[in-house]
## 1
Amino acid sequence: VVGRTRINPISSNRFRSVMITTAHRLRQLPSRRKAVASDDDHLILPDQDFSQQAHIPSFQKYQEMYKRSIQDPAGFWSQMASHFYWKKKWGQQVYSQNLDITKGNINIEWFKGGITNICYNCLDRNIESGNGEKIAIHWEGNEPGFDDSLTYNQLLERVCQLANCLKENGVKKGDSVIIYLPMLMELPISMLACARIGAVHSVVFAGFSAESLEQRIIDCKPKIVITCNAVKRGTKVINLKDIVDSALSGSSQNGIHVGVCLTYANESAMKREVTKWQKERDIWWQDAVPKYSTKCDVEWVDGEDPLFLLYTSGSTGKPKGVLHTTGGYMIYTAATFKYAFDYKPSDIYWCTADCGWITGHSYVSYGPLLNGATVVVYEGVPNYPDPGRCWDIVDKYKVTIFYTAPTLVRSLMRDGNEHVTRYSRKSLRVLGSVGEPINPTAWRWFFNVVGDARCPISDTWWQTETGGFMITPLPGAWPQKPGSATFPFFGVQPVIVDEKGKEMEGECSGYLCVKNSWPGAFRTLFGDHERYETTYFSAFPGYYFSGDGCRRDKDGYHWLTGRVDDVINVSGHRIGTAEVESALVSHPKCAEAAVVGVEHEVKGQCIYAFVTPVKGVTYSEDLKKSLVLSVRTNIGAFAAPDKIHWAPGLPKTRSGKIMRRILRKIASRQLDELGDTSTLADPSVVDQLIALADS
Ligand code: PRX
């Protein structure tokens, strides 16, 4: 079944060049966050009552299913897919793949020829099976007391109205639609409406700046942009419409004219009357959408038709448009959600992620809704009006599965146990973590204080590119180790390779790759298949390379050690150092910039920027502020550097390459670990930088 006919083997010259490019980007495996021996030995056994009721009650059951998923992927995933509605079944070949760049172009396909629709499977299918009156979404507003909910029937009606409105405004199958919305119910509604009519949504996190939004508009040329006038996060009001106006005018100047800007009036944040308006382009959601019929025929699509684009940061260049297709993503997000959270129909599920990131796609919207779950969607920030807000929400909706990021765990841990323990939290039964390695201390606090030592934690390792969980505990099935993502999900074959790409067995530490495809894998980078192949498949031919380092302990548990490329993970947000550097050098007084990640108590990592000013410019606090502002306006506030380090010069090799290794050591003040600096073109630069470290 596997092994598709090779197409266009790439030339050996190109192969060599992609190998070289990628090899240069890799850096030494970080030793930070390496678990100490005692963590390896610390087993937390599953609770017997929990295991007995779990979908996967034992390691043995997991092993049986895992073995089958690897030996017979076609049979295994066909069975998973059979729980969903297919208007026409896929062809004889369940999947085809080539992950080996030395043998031809990279190609992954699952369920090709199958005809389906993910919106139909999320909504209509669940309604037909008798769940129409079940709550699909509980929405909790920024202000306590502001809430709303939609049943599956109501959600379908809202989705259909919007889908009809989009169609009327010219959106057709295959067109892209940019969604720039905060966590209102209208965000999942917009995603589902696009999916219903076969349009390709591209959600842009509403914390991105106008420049970032403009860049994405220019890249994917949407027919429509969906937004709202403003949002309130905590006490802060953010005028999103102004940001969209600026992005749309910028994209127009670049020849990309978006005809329609559908704007939801979020009156709790800002009145309609004060919103700037362009009559010929802007439409108020509330004026337009409710007029349409609550019924909308489904556009049936191929399993391999695109579902969405999501831009993410890489170690070089502009953000990449990660493309996911319909069938494989649908089956994979549904199955991972069910097993990794031990989901049951009586659960109430809350994931704190924003739909602007992959976690919000796969595990706020699609995965849970495909399972007919009740999902809590929260508009605000976790510590507003006080650090107990999360547990207030948990008690209010009787949340049973709570999925969040280590950065939030650490910040709540810092705020003190009393904000947690004054709430009951007795509804909770499974906890989840995602976005960065969770350090054992935070893990234990999450387990003991939030979960009262009762709830297993699913520490899910995955990526925008993987679509769904790759390495994750299955609650109740095996003992946990605080800080370890444990074992691979069904159908996933993680391998740890050394610098030469050689697979290592047993206890080892190296680069995390994946052998063979899985249904949720991304298929390409939008408009740039070559970059897809170069970035992910050339460093270690034959494998998908994740960009992460990983250690496997003596019991076979996986411990993620962080990125090994120039990607920084700030509060679980993925940021490319190159993007921040380019934002800094766009400042007229910045001649050169080099950015590194430094460990941060709450954020995991923070951004540390070395900046060389243009000749004649002197150091000032105002200039530092304006440099930070440059990053905020070019990318977004979440990417703002924590530290600007004045750098009269940067440590470079004689060939002009910046030695980031040295900068990392200076930034983290590990000055006795600078290593050999004699190969630098000007070794005295290092002393200058050290002298300026605390200025
Ligand atoms: O470094 C890994 C880290 O987040 C990266 C992926 O980021 P992104 O595509 O934005 O997706 C985040 C949500 C899936 C990975 O390369 N990462 C994610 N989950 C974990 C993690 N690192 C350690 N443990 C995790 N559970």
Note: Residues 312, 357-359, 433-437, 459-464, 485, 546-548, 560, 563, 569, 574 surround adenosine-5'-monophosphate-propyl ester (CB under 6 Å).
## 2
Amino acid sequence: MPDQTRPRILAVTNQKGGVGKTTTAINLGAALAELGERVLIIDLDPQGNASTGLGISARDRDNTTYELLLEDAPLASVIRQTGVERLDIAPATTDLSSTDVELGNAENRVFLLKDALSSEVLLTYDQVLIDCPPSLSLLTVNALVACDAVLVPLQAEFFALEGLSQLMLTVRDVRETANPGLRIEGVVLTMYDQRNNLSQQVEADARATLGELVLQTRIPRNVRLSEAPSYALPVLAYDPASKGSQAYMELAEELLARHAKRKEPA
Ligand code: ADP
Ligand code: MG
């Protein structure tokens, strides 16, 4: 009998582009799958990088997250298997870029993803990761409304913390209106370079400002992570011994441990 409890839903969000959201969605997803979790990635970025990076060809994207949100396509009809065991994806195409305009002021417009996920097929997963677009658009708000918690990749670079306050305000808004249980699961430092003073400075600032929210695991800058998508593979399949693979396994373990700890009775 498969476990029929609701999966944990994490939105991978930061309105800055190029900070490692998609890399984290793909590789954290693969690492969780490696640890035995059944994982669904939901590609909510019109660029569809997570879909391409996991080998879903454009031809195999008849039903996508666009149809899921705007045309009531059932979740089961959107899901594709990837080459990785226990890792599935709901792919995206550029169609999704018109969502903000198409939805206009529709009353339920922030609940579209949440509604679409109230599907039996969701219960066959343990973990859902939503790869968000680089903006605080309606798509991102849909992710914040539908998820349990937010995982924020933070690139160890100048101005890294600047955009964060806007994201935190949006999270608070959504918590006060549409999703009272919404939490920040954690902030994960990405493209970290141990030998670089700037990386260390960003880490120190982040830990001083955000405290416990900053996860212990740091994702190093690792060329294997940037190469893997062109082979349509997560880094764990492309180069399991790489620093990138090790870091995402560590991140998966840290998140599972945090989750288990939270579930312990007080
Ligand atoms: P986002 O989804 O936030 O826009 P991506 O995950 O697409 O960011 O990452 C942006 C670019 O940086 C991509 O080319 C990706 O391959 C590369 N990249 C991401 N994380 C790392 C890393 N830890 N080491 C090296 N390259 C990385
Ligand atoms: Mg991306």
Note: Residues 8-263 form a domain with the Rossmann fold fold (CATH 3.40.50.300).
